[in-house]
């Protein structure tokens, strides 16, 4: 027997003695099995009443949509479309335009598209009306592609768009070199505030609006 093995044997014997000592002591919590059963019954009643909750806190979270940039952008595009079935009209679009310092006149005729390609670039969301174009490049977890911001600004430049960089942190795009001064950084949490203001003025909007808003308020675009 080596010295190391001998040390292990002594330590094991000491631990075994401790367990035997504990096992020989009286139960420190009389009736603990009954108490655990009562706790489980109480938990069952809470679960049945919907007061014990686990898992996704919103439907979009449960569906793992809250961290999907494409799906979240489509939801945003829906809310920005004036005649969408959401029932908000231009309430969200106008507040976003105000945030960007863009005139809202004519916004009721806005047309919103998603994933529109131009050259080798693609705009996540593009809003157009009366000579105005707002381009939104959104990020949740994905990194920027090579020269992405400059390429977007160049490829859609003839429309003189107002490019928006929508992220969790609200930072400027790292790939904006020649176009840096044109980009408007904004956060998903700010989008939540804008949507919330729209809902406050038109509370009879579709339930999907509030689901999207609740998801943004809880997760703030973090995709946790």
Concise account of the structure shown:
With 224 residues, the chain is of the alpha/beta class. The chain is 45% helix and 15% strand. It is built from eight helices and five strands.
Describe it:
There is one protein chain. The protein is α/β, with parallel strands linked by helices and 224 residues long. Helices cover 45% and strands 15% of the residues. It contains eight helices and five strands, in the order αααααβββαββαα. It has helices at 3-24, 32-48, 59-62, 69-80, 91-100, 148-155, 188-201, 207-219, and strands at 111-118, 121-129, 132-138, 162-167, 184-187. The chain has a five-stranded mixed beta sheet. The two termini are 53 Å apart. The mean pLDDT is 91.
Keywords:
single chain, 224 residues, alpha/beta, 5-stranded mixed β-sheet, 8 helices, 5 strands, 45% helix, 15% strand, elongated
Number of helices: 8
Order of helices and strands: HHHHHEEEHEEHH
The global form is elongated
For the largest beta-sheet, the strand count, sense and barrel status come to:
5 strands, mixed
Distance between the termini: 53 Å
Report the radius of gyration as a whole number of Å: 28 Å
Category by helix and strand content: alpha/beta
What low-confidence regions span 5 or more consecutive residues with pLDDT below 50?
none
Percent range for helical residues?
40-55%
Strand order of the largest sheet: 1-2-3-4-5
Give the number of DSSP strands.
Answer: 5
Mean pLDDT across all residues, rounded?
A: 91
Q: DSSP strand (E) fraction?
A: 15-25%
């Amino acid at each position: 027997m080596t010295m190391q093995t001998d040390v292990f044997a002594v330590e094991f014997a000491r631990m075994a003695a401790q367990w035997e000592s504990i096992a020989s002591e009286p139960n420190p919590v009389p009736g603990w099995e009954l108490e655990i059963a009562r706790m489980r019954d109480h938990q069952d009643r809470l679960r049945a009443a919907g007061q014990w909750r686990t898992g996704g806190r919103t439907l979009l979270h449960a569906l793992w949509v809250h961290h999907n940039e494409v799906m979240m952008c489509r939801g945003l595009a829906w809310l920005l479309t004036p005649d969408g079935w959401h029932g908000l009209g231009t309430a969200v679009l106008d507040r976003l335009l105000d945030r960007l310092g863009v005139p809202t006149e004519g916004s009721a005729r806005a047309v919103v598209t998603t994933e529109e390609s131009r050259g080798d670039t693609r705009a996540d969301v593009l809003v157009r009306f009366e000579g105005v174009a707002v381009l939104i490049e959104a990020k949740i977890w994905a990194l920027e592609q090579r020269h992405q911001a400059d390429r977007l600004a160049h490829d859609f430049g003839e429309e003189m768009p107002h490019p928006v960089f929508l992220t969790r942190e609200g930072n400027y795009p790292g790939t904006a070199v020649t176009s840096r001064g044109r980009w408007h950084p904004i956060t998903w949490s700010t989008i939540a505030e804008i949507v919330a203001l729209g809902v406050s003025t038109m509370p009879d909007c579709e339930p999907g609006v509030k689901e999207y808003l609740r998801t943004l308020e809880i997760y703030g675009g973090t995709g946790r």
